[in-house]
Amino acid sequence: MTNIEKSIIQTLAFFDIFSYPLTESEIWKWLYKPGKKVALSEIKNVLEDSEFLTDKVSKVEGFYSLKDRENTCYRRKQNNNVAEHKYRRAIRLAKLYRFIPFIRMMAVCNSLAISNAKEDSDIDFFIITKKNKIWLARFFSVLFIKIFGLRPADGANKDAFCLSFFIDESSLDIKKIMMHHQDLYSAYWVQQLMPIYNPDGLYEKFMKENDWHKENLPNGYTNEFSKEVEENRLSSWSGKVFRYIVSPPIFNRWLDTFYRKLQTKIISHNLSSMVNVDTRVIVNETMLKFHPNDRRELFYKKWRERLHTILN
């Protein structure tokens, strides 16, 4: 077994956790720890000629999966159709959120970022805010979807919006939230982010600050979304008016404290035992992360189990 063959198996095994087969170019893009950057042509040659992979990998309609997991090809295509609908909802929300001046970047994350959404799944966002305005950005973005009943609820997550991860533009490096060396998921999470609102180029800055993920995924590159929402004169002007109304300069510091205390009181009530205990729930002035059901360790365990079955 060569290093590239091993990397291909490791990559397919990770995405198999999510029933997501890969094309040749996706295997190349998300190739796990090949030791160096590898050309796409080399991946194609290995997939076609490797005797080692013959009994371990299947190809259906251009999608590669682990052996006996060929059905995931049809599941992926079905989920891709579902994702189109959810992306349209995400774009509509981004068009409204661009009027909130404290939000400076929005990206779709998790399953929707790779168009692998299920019918009953919600829509996850990762948001970068203006410096020192993380609490205002969260307050008004959450308030909006709460008023219109668009937040996830028990038994009703379909097409709801999950705003569970905010960071400040002054602190873009998120390596500190990795769980440990077994945190395979975080590198893929960074690489899969799909920006849908990025007027200041913060997505590119974020990717540069987090190039540590290329230690695992050296072939990764920044993503582009063909329907990315743009800031216009109306949103820019309205944003200035909105900022002056909800956070006038004369009361700036007092209101920042007010918005923080108002939300931390609610957060502490709901997640008091988890706040800042580990990387699942983080609450500070540059990061608000609410993932009480963090499954990164579970994903790593499933990945190792798949590799053990395949390679032994």
Q: Which strand-content bin applies to the residues?
A: 5-15%
Oligomerization state:
single chain
Number of DSSP E strands = 8
Major sheet = 6 strands, mixed
Count of helical regions: 11
Q: Helicity, in percent?
A: 40-55%
Order of neighbouring strands in the sheet with most strands: 6-3-4-5-8-7
**Total number of domains:** 2
- Give the N-terminus to C-terminus distance in angstroms: 12 Å
**SSE-based structural type:** alpha+beta
In sequence order, what are the helices and strands, one letter per element?
A: HHHHEEHEEHEHEHHHEEH
* Unreliable residue stretches: none
**Overall pLDDT, averaged?**
91
Spatial extent as radius of gyration? 21 Å
Q: What would you call the shape?
A: elongated
Can you walk through the features of this model?
By secondary structure, this protein is an alpha+beta fold. It has two domains: 3-70, Arc Repressor Mutant, subunit A; 83-295, no CATH class. Helix content is 45%, strand content 13%. It is built from eleven helices and eight strands. It has helices at 3-16, 24-29, 40-49, 51-54, 72-97, 134-147, 184-192, 202-209, 233-246, 252-271, 296-311, and strands spanning 57-60, 63-66, 103-108, 123-129, 161-168, 194-197, 281-283, 287-290. The strands form two sheets. Strands 6-3-4-5-8-7 form a six-stranded mixed sheet, covered by helices on one side. Strands 1-2 form a two-stranded antiparallel ribbon.
